[in-house]
Amino acid sequence: MEAHEIHKAFIDIYGQPDLLVRSPARINLIGEHTDYNGGFVLPAAINKETYFAISGNGTRTCNVYSKHFDETVTFELDDIKPSDKSWANYLIGAVDQVQKNGYKVHGFNIVFGGNIPIGAGLSSSASVECGLIFSINELFSLGIEPVEIIKMGQKAENEFVGVQCGIMDQFINVMGKKDHALRLDCRSLEYYYFPLKLNNYCIILCNSLVSHSLATSAYNTRKEECLRGVEIIKAHYPEVESLRDVKLPMLQHLLPELGENVFNRCKFVIEENLRVLESCDQLQKGDVAGFGRNLYDSHYGLALTYKVSCPELDFLIGFTINKPQVVGARMMGGGFGGCTINIVENTYKDDFIQAISDAYQQRFEIMPEIYEVAPAEGTSEAAVSECVNTKSSL
Ligand code: GLA
């Protein structure tokens, strides 16, 4: 679904919208499950987006139409409560946060939808939460700073949706920059933009179509295991605040106390943080091969040590091994399904897409979805010209 369809749907129901907004999906090059452990991540916003068309309606009622689900949910600003339509809770939860932070929201009509696959690990949820907060911030001139939009989006997900996610997805949604990845220190929120120059390579995502719901998956369990690890380590090393402060040798002698599971979760996070820092150096030096090796190490850590992969994702990664034209690949996002990210030689792109699709189809009897993506700007106002259907004018 493209911007012009959202624009048109709004016009059909409510007339001209006051504002149009685009809000991107994200990839994460490396640094998985490190964000809620005070560590480092390297995401980029991408050219897959949710679009919002919105107008104030002068009441205390909000009417929200999801073009994707073809459903409308209405809620009252003075009586916020969760909806039985789970898609609506990303928006209601976001409005709830804005109000709880003392900003004066007014009633609005909104139509939204886009082209980010849902449950694919591309963070469609952060795109809806932050896109909605950005929209009402602009519409009602609330003066909410970008960092507050990020934190409110994350809290909406924690409180209303029930996923104890970190800050990566909301941060990159708001702060993404075209042609750049962003290295974020999730503890201090310091960040740097990295030009994402992959020269002869492109970024291909393979969607396993195993749809994950982080709320019901082991995502929250992983977070608890890490916190338990920190508590035990802290008893021996009081300076430790999060796994970010732990070095591998400190962990080694605590194995009996931590137990194998918690030990492994902590070990993965410590190693993954090191991989992010090393990958940034490699990207800066143009060492795409070294960067690619880190992606594979990340995948095998996620699969074997952190245990958030699944057979479909492992198959997609296994397929790329020993293919010199694929420099690196790994599962991406929270895990348990969703997409893999693959760094593929430009000249091999078409053959790769064909070969991996055929192999996956043969093994699992489903055709995976494949997307070539490029780094894009964070959430921003969309021009009306983007909403004109150029295809139909032919
Ligand atoms: C999900 C969460 C993020 C992050 C990743 C794993 O996308 O929303 O906060 O924890 O999983 O890296």
Distance between the termini: 19 Å
Mean of pLDDT: 94
Order of helices and strands: HEEEEEHEHHHEEEHHHHHEEHEE
Q: How much helix, percentage-wise, in residues?
A: 40-55%
Any idea of the CATH class of the largest domain? Alpha Beta
Report the radius of gyration as a whole number of Å: 21 Å
Large-scale geometry: globular
Q: What can be said about the biggest beta sheet? A: 6 strands, mixed
Instruction: Please count the beta strands (DSSP E, at least 2 residues each).
Output: 13
Based on helices, strands and strand pairing, what is the structural class? alpha+beta
Strand order of the largest sheet: 5-4-6-3-1-13
Total helical segments: 11
Number of domains: 2
Multimerization state: single chain
CATH topology-level name of the largest domain:
Ribosomal Protein S5, domain 2
Indicate the low-confidence ranges by residue numbers.
Answer: 390-394
- What proportion of the residues form beta strands (DSSP E)? 15-25%
Identify every distinct bound molecule in the structure, by name, code or SMILES. alpha-D-galactopyranose
